Amino acid sequence: MSYINKPKVSHPSLPTNQLGLTRRQYEGSMSTLCAGCGHDSVTAAVVEACWGLSMQPEQLVKLSGIGCSSKTTAYFVSGSHGFNAVHGRMPSIASGANAANRGLTYIGVSGDGDSLSIGIGQLVHVIRRNVNMLYLIENNGVYGLTKGQFSASADIGTKAKRGEVNSSPPIDPVLLALTLGATFVARSFSGDKAQLVPLIQAGLRHNGFALIDVLSPCVTFNDHEGSTKSYTFTREHYHAAVETDFVPRAQEIAVDYPAGESIPVSLHDGSRVVLRKLDPTYDPTDRAAAYHYIETKLKQNEYVTGLIHIDETAATEFHTVNRTAAAPLNSIPYQKLSPGRAALDKLMGRYR
Amino acid sequence: MPSLIAATGKVNDFVVKFANVNGTGSASANSLIMKAIFRMGVPVTGKNYFPSNIQGLPTWYEIRVTRDAYAARATQVDIMVAMNAETYSKDVRELSSGGYLIYDSTWPRSALLQRGDITVIPVPLAQLVNENFDGVRNRILLKNVAYAGVLAALIDVDLEVISTLLGESYGRKPKLLESNTRALRLGYDYVKTHLTSPLPLRVEHMDKTRGHIMIDGNTAAGLGCVYAGATVGAWYPITPSTSLMDAFRGFCERYRVDPETGERNFVILQAEDELAAVGMVLGASWNGARAFTPTSGPGISLMNEFVGLAYYAEVPCVIFDVQRVGPSTGMPTRTQQSDILLCAYASHGDTRHVLLFPANPEECFYMAVQAFDIAERLQTPVFVLSDLDIGMNDWMCPDLQWDDAYRPDRGKMLSSEELAGLEKFYRYVDRDDDAIPYRTLPGTNPKGAYFTRGSGHNQYGAYTEDSTEYQLVLDRLKRKFAGASKYLPKPVITANGNEVGIVSLGSCDGAIREALDVLGRQKIPVDYLRVRAFPFNSEVENFLKSHSTIFVVEQNRDAQLRSLLTLETAVEKSKLFSILSYSGLPMSAQPIVDGIRAKFEEAPRLSAVPRK
Lengths: 352, 612
What we know:
The complex is a heterodimer of chains A (352) and B (612). By secondary structure, chain A is of the alpha/beta class.
């Protein structure tokens, strides 16, 4: 059975937020992902972020596509409506939902397969449309549910569990979003809750489309040695029994590092990745500079993390451009929507 | 075989066809003539045969002046206004014997004289226009108005009516009004001076268009969406459905913008493709707005995956399919009814969908409104299957009516207060034993929260891979569909207890009504049922049962309606005979008359008097 109800009993001494709710009340059903999956850390960060924001659970709308990452919307804030769309098509559901009610907070959770392969068209256009939502990509470079194929974010030279080497260049969602003029672009790591929680909170509160690319290792299918970019550093992290399909218990990767320092972190496939905090002099409002910086660091196999680009001044949010009524469209009474009989009678004159 | 539909007279009963080059502005001249005839109280239809192209290719416009108010395409052409040198020879061939050919005689066209059974009317249009107007583009445009003037003189269209129409079009542009009026008179006066007029084919004032309008189905459907209270429209441009969204946008800009603040009570999303368009509709509908998408066959193909999700997760969704010629890209600017099966069973797995079949623009308006009520009542996708003939051609329809007492049927939607009173909310439980569950909207109450998913779910809305739980939901969906017909438009039946019947749908209606008149005059009595919705109701079942021979008339090659009838009713396959038209041209009465007569000749006993 892959659906488990999570008990909601909580100790009376647990801290509460401004609404008097505990963190437990922002949780969802029990995760059915592999033990040690990075996605569960992201879920925990979302819970923490929403709790910290004292968000009314019913004011949040959770959207996802298909894949391991897209399951996670079931694992947080059970008091919110969730919509699990078809593969790669969550952005269109989000666009429509947001059109109907601009008053709610929208969070979309997707993965690298869902967003960068089958759904890249919709991702590109939801960015371009600048729909007000937070879009999390739980990026692990691999297809988990179909057992280990490379995704479009896999690096050149990285090795799959069964040995084949990836030769196609990766698509970087951060560079993609910058190119498309996204007004909030961030990258983080599932093991870095200290960085991720405030980013999620900022993204939820950003007026417009906010993208966070979260490097979120797959313990089962991308947790082996053999990447052409591999560092011995990999060995310092948990290693699964790679030759089998046995799902191991694994510890979550957790790092904490000071600003300005480059820290190599091994993804579970052994790829060499360097996480780099943005240095304090970095100006996240300069899109062109950000693009150049990110690309330069990528060539050195370093992933820049943190809030890479933000533009709160752009008046390009979808409803702003559309001049949509301030009240949610789904709340406007029918009498205001129907032109009525007299108008129709008058209109008929145009067709004679 | 000689035409069985003999013209009974030529006053207010003939066909004018215009052969033009597209992109030259001929459409407004052609509709000027059509509207003038309509304003004279004479029923008229207009059919546009246009290429999938912007400029330079042949295009035809056909005006049928029909005192009996037949809506179908006529098969003869009585007057050909041949303005396209490239198609002259084809156009001359198409003209019926005894017909009239009007052509621009500025340059010699010897090929025109090859037929002895037609009357050729030469008018030096280019010369007239060039002598009186400057500018290349201006001359091209005004030549159209000049031939409208020629035609007006030849068929006796009231010049005052035309002047009024020009005044309405160019009232605010005096220069244009002046040049158009002058061009019209150029043609008109040329005929009056040089030729005998009017022809025996002519228009006389009648009083048969009062209380009627000329409108196309896409405009009517777009207007219906406004009256239904739709606030979100999403689409990807595709012929022939684009003008539906254009109409919706136009009406919204007129009726849905706050005059003081400029705030808009609508959102139109031009999607990146049809997959996204239908996704947007699902998202908006799920979130409590009335939302729709107009598309055509290729768009439906792309929407299939989401349609299955909407069916299974029970998300309301309104899709207009303005059908065009398939398969594949097919002929985008020609008409067909070839998406019936595609829509009825769209998407993988066990899915079945509600279909509505408007027969004309009037029904497009009313069915657009009904579609939203049905979609929300049943929490399922509803397809409105129009076609290019209905959607893009001007049809004469009774004035559209509206009852201000109408309120949308939002179906079973729990409010925040109702949710507060519940111990626990379960999305897919059949509380009322009608197979329709209750839904909730985001943002109302945390007790109403549930997870919408296309993956296996139980009646509580939770993920499941349990066979029993899965089947419980799937079986309820089947019951819901079985009970759907009581919410759907009933078939239209014309029956006199005959043994032979016609079953058809949509835009075949005009051709069938005309065929019934012809057959009636030939003492061939036939009953007629027009289905207006799928699933079929008991009246359809009874009609099929009570007729021994049934002609299924439809516009596709594979007899899709016939297939649907055999799959979804108890009818014996052997008594269903197909009459098919899939040329891409709108249906005419001819194949129906021919098909039924042939059968009667084979089996004369069918023509026996009605059964007791």
